[in-house]
Amino acid sequence: MMIPNYEFKQTHPIYDTNLLDPKSEWSAKKKGTVTKEIHNILVQKILHYPDVMKHQTNVKANMTDWHMHMKDPHFRTLATLVEEIAKEMRYGSGQFVEGKEGEVSIRKGQSPRLQTEECWGAAYGKDEFTQEHTHWPATWSWCYYLQVPEGSSPLVFPEAGVLFEPKVGDLVVFDSSVKHSVPPCQCEEKRIMIAGNIGVISNTIFLRLATGEL
User: Fold this and answer.
1) Which has the closest alpha carbon to 196: 70, 39, 18?
2) Which of 102, 118, 147, 205 might form a disulfide with 197, Cβ 3.0–4.6 angstroms?
3) Per-residue pLDDT tens for 65-76?
4) Residue 149: which H helix or E strand, with range?
5) Short-list 59, 37, 74, CA closest to 153
């Protein structure tokens, strides 16, 4: 079956923030942040994880398997935090609405049910890169940066002419349908990050579970 493709011009939100709490110790972490301890543990886990993908994916660097959030509690902690952030992404820049007398409020509504579908770690060495690709049919994709040495490459969105020069602890969340890439790194030390894909779970699934149809 041949299905024609057409080119559309659309706008897509990209959200970036820093999640690393530099003051946190083994005590309870500040809500919405990643502790230094968890951050450093993730660095070591990725550095010591075998290159199971053997550079056969779009990531031409050492890479873990796709489902670390299902295997490792520290990956899951990060993925869950990003899911909460992604819930607020549904309105993009239009989430603020102006009321009477100039009052500005945040648009309210039912949050979508989101679920991390894939989550993996990668460690880039010199001349390693990620070729241009998308993560469709996922809804949101994200990158969290654990180690960003001198000579690290940016995250590039070629269609928008946008690039992000990440810092340690930075998180970037973006529409999974947009093309992105990482140019070859010029760093001697490893550029280490975690990425993930998030999907929307249909409410119909929960209704069918509740009625015993599934």
Assistant:
1) 70
2) 118
3) 999 999 999 999
4) none
5) 59
Helices (H), 21-179: 36-48, 68-71, 73-87
The 10s digit of each residue's pLDDT in 149-165 is 999 999 999 999 999 99
Q: Check if CATH label 2.60.120.620 holds for domain 14-23+30-89+110-210.
A: yes
Report yes or no: 97 and 138 within 8 Å, Cβ to Cβ: no
| Residues 185 and 152 sit within 8 Å (Cβ to Cβ) | yes
DSSP-derived letter for residue 64 is: -
| pTM for the structure as a whole | 0.85
**What token pair was written down for 67?**
């489902």
pLDDT at 95 exceeding the cut of 90: no
How would you class 77 by CB atoms within 10 Å of its CB: exposed for 0-12, middle for 13-18, buried for 19 or more? Answer: middle
Instruction: Supply 66's token pair.
Output: 């796709």
